[in-house]
Amino acid sequence: MNETVTPQVEAFFDQDTSTFSYVLYAADGSECAIIDSVLNYESKASRTSTDSADAIVDFIRARKLTVRWILETHAHADHLSAAPYLQKLLGGTIAIGCSIRAVQGAFQKVFHFSDSFPMDGSQFGHLFQPDEIFHVGPFRVKVMHVPGHTPADIAYVVNSPDGDSQVVFVGDTLFMPDVGSARCDFPGGSANVLYHSAKRLLSLPVQTRLFICHDYPPAGRAACCETTVEAQKLANIHFNDDVDEDGFVKLRTERDATLGMPALILPALQVNLRGGELPAAEENGIRYLKIPINGL
Known about the structure:
By secondary structure, this protein is of the alpha/beta class. The protein is 24% helix and 23% strand. It is built from 7 helices and 14 strands.
């Protein structure tokens, strides 16, 4: 008989980037996974700090958890990943979807990556294949490829041992119902593809808990990290029954045309495509980020 163990999810909110990071675990002393961590970056001074990541470290140490995985849902354009910092302190394997190679290729020209920059995703400890299965303690996790925002987006579908409890970390594919969906105008993005990815997520059982990566709440609502398939199907402003694929593509394309680039896209992608590592220091001991002129 399968033991009844419910996935425990602790959320951490980074106010500056509106990002939710998560720790998935079973109980104190169990294995855990960290999802979508944040390295704080102050752009005016180009200075990093680790306050957001340290909150995760403190939580894991307080509960005596063992880090098995440090997971990314995609290469984020709005915040820097703290994965290498967390790995140094806590261990674990840094992982992302195998289609990260397509995103590296899409931005190779923008950042003029040198020959020493491998375009094969080897900056990460593991590249997940679509539908790959792995485990975090007692939980079986299935990788769902949900491209559209970028070619490399994946969701992590977590099942309890008895199969009665399911949670999904959806990355940027879905937002809260009153916000809708992620933009699709980055290189390799596609509103048509995102529509079908979202519909796959919404085909999961209605009680499935969905944990989002960002929330940009309308006035009067606090930031939220959790919703359900049922709530999304009933109220998502972009994916309700009155909006078909053509309607969504029109809506999403028109909306994307009004959006500026994320404030941290240039530093974030240079770091996140390296698995969260900063560029190597030059002879003077200082690390540099490139700022392409008219490159986006």
